[in-house]
């Protein structure tokens, strides 16, 4: 009898111990649970290139992520959109309107804890086919999985499938178009452009994979929308519904350079052989994760957190938790007198400022409180499904 009671108490202690851990991978005999972090655009304007230049002529972007990296480390898998190309020094490093960044820009992203990148956006072809090809070569050399562009002149970029602690995630990536119009005919396949037929074909491709390869969850990364607008357009809302009916589980958008209002759409869809009302998160724009833009609110972004749970019994998976963390791109003078850029975790920074008002200038602390309020409003839904996290 004593042994039985001891076993029960030990099991209860184990359960409570797991519940107190950060919301990363939690696996039991019945379920696997992972945490995915998604951010908006990684941009690199001229001012960022200048700030990263070192005395020896190299470029170093690691300080950009020193404040935010501990938070990214809490994700089991993290990705965002690379809105620049890595065409090499000979092509000249430039920001807007035609981007080209040092290879060390991607190195810093990986060191910050990001596991993959999407590469489909309106700047994907800023250095033509050569830029597309070399960008992918650099990412491959760094071991960074990617989707959205390809060096193939015959086939479009295939969706990315990653296995995260036993949960398979499919990632689709598309851009609304390219700056300067369409790519030359022989390079039309190099950048995935938003097209319902192509997206449907990619979803069907994922669903046709073998059981060992087929994704449990499909995420769509769309580079789209109207720049600097805080609301998505009506046609985007409609297209989001189409995506969910086609088989996508979450929409994660970027390009407007501001954080837009989100939705948790309820749609009737076939699930487990019968009709059911399911809910799907539509995050139309996550804003800039890092950039040189300073006009409010372009210096803000958001990390979106998806809690995904998979049954070890029947293999069914679903998104069971939605959270967000507002971010701020801080342009400041370092102790060495250099201009620096860094991504700040807004709720954490507000707490730091409350504990030590001298840590940040008063105008920055004021701005961070404004951002916290504004993004809370953007992520408010009737069912209050999105939760603020640090």
Q: Which SSEs are present, and which pair or pack?
A:
Blueprint: H1 2-19, E1 26-27, E2 31-42, H2 46-52, H3 69-72, E3 77-82, H4 103-111, E4 116-118, H5 128-142, E5 146-147, E6 160-164, E7 167-175, H6 196-207, E8 217-223, H7 234-246, E9 250-254, E10 262-271, E11 274-283, E12 288-290, E13 300-311, E14 317-333, E15 339-345, H8 346-355, H9 362-378, E16 386-388
Parallel strand pairs: 2-3, 2-12, 3-4, 4-5, 7-8, 8-9, 9-11, 14-16
Antiparallel strand pairs: 1-2, 2-13, 6-7, 10-11, 13-14, 14-15
Helix pairs in contact: 8-9
Rough outline: globular
Distance between the termini: 45 Å
Rg (CA only): 21 Å
Report the biggest beta sheet as strand number plus sense, adding barrel if it closes.
10 strands, mixed
The SS-based structural class is alpha/beta
* % residues in beta strands: 25-35%
Tell me the number of helical segments per DSSP (H or I, 4 or more residues long).
9
User: What is the multimeric organization of the chains shown?
Assistant: single chain
CATH class value:
Alpha Beta
Poorly predicted residue ranges = 1-23
CATH topology: Purple Acid Phosphatase, chain A, domain 2
Order of helices and strands: HEEHHEHEHEEEHEHEEEEEEEHHE
**What CATH architecture do you see?**
4-Layer Sandwich
Percent helix range: 25-40%
């Amino acid at each position: 009898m004593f042994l039985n009671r001891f076993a029960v108490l030990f099991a209860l202690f184990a359960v409570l111990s797991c519940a107190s851990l950060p919301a990363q991978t939690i696996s039991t005999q019945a379920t696997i649970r992972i945490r995915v972090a998604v951010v908006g655009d990684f941009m690199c304007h001229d001012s960022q290139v200048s700030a990263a230049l070192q005395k020896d002529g190299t470029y170093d972007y690691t300080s950009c992520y020193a404040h935010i990296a501990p938070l990214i480390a809490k994700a089991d898998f993290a990705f965002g959109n690379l809105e620049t190309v890595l065409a090499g020094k000979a092509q000249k490093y430039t920001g807007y309107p035609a981007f080209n960044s040092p290879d060390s820009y991607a190195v810093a992203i990986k060191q910050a804890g990001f596991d993959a990148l999407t590469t489909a956006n309106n700047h994907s072809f800023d250095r033509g086919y050569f830029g597309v090809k070399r960008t992918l070569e650099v990412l491959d050399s760094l071991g960074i999985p990617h989707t959205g562009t390809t060096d193939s002149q015959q086939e479009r970029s295939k969706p990315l499938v990653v296995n995260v602690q036993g949960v398979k995630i499919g990632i689709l990536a598309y851009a609304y178009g390219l700056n300067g119009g369409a790519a030359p005919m022989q390079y039309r396949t190099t950048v995935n452009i938003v097209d319902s037929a192509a997206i449907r074909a990619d979803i069907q491709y994922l669903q046709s994979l073998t059981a060992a390869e087929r994704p449990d969850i499909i995420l769509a990364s769309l580079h789209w929308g109207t720049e600097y607008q805080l609301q998505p357009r009506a046609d985007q809302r409609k297209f989001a519904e189409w995506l969910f009916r086609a088989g996508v589980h979450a929409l994660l958008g970027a390009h407007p350079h501001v954080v837009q209002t989100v939705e948790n759409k309820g749609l009737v869809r076939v699930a487990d052989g019968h009709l059911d009302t399911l809910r799907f998160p539509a995050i139309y724009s996550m804003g800039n994760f890092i950039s040189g833009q300073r006009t409010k609110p372009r210096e803000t972004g958001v990390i979106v957190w998806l809690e995904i749970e998979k049954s070890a019994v029947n293999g069914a998976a679903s998104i069971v938790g939605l959270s967000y963390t507002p971010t701020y791109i801080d342009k400041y003078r370092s102790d060495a007198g250099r201009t620096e850029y860094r991504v700040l975790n807004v709720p954490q920074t507000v707490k730091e400022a409350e504990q030590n008002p001298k840590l940040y200038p008063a105008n920055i602390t004021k701005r961070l409180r404004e951002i916290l309020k504004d993004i809370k409003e953007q992520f408010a839904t009737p069912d209050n499904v999105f939760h603020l996290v640090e």
